[in-house]
Amino acid sequence: MSNPPLFRDPWAKREAWRKHPVFSNRAMFSSMFPGFGIAVVAFTAYVVVDNFYGKVQGSSAKH
């Protein structure tokens, strides 16, 4: 009982690609929406500038 039988997976080399970092959940999610981060930043900048411009135009139109 001191030496239990050693079992090796004959398919281990063929299954190794599943553990590669390219196929991780984070990599899959980040490549699912390419450009989403840039779009969020651009839209946020647009909304901020539009609100600022609207306030400037609104206050100057009242005078």
Automatic annotation (TrEMBL):
Source species, domain of life: Eukaryota
Cell compartment(s), UniProt: Mitochondrion inner membrane
InterPro entries assigned: NDUFB3
Entry keyword set: Electron transport, Membrane, Mitochondrion, Mitochondrion inner membrane, Respiratory chain, Transmembrane, Transmembrane helix, Transport
Stretches that traverse the bilayer: 27-49
Coiled-coil regions listed: none
Topology versus the membrane: Single-pass membrane protein
Biological function: Accessory subunit of the mitochondrial membrane respiratory chain NADH dehydrogenase (Complex I), that is believed not to be involved in catalysis. Complex I functions in the transfer of electrons from NADH to the respiratory chain. The immediate electron acceptor for the enzyme is believed to be ubiquinone.
Family of this protein: Belongs to the complex I NDUFB3 subunit family.
Name of the protein: Uncharacterized protein
Naturally occurring in which organism (per UniProt): Paxillus rubicundulus Ve08.2h10
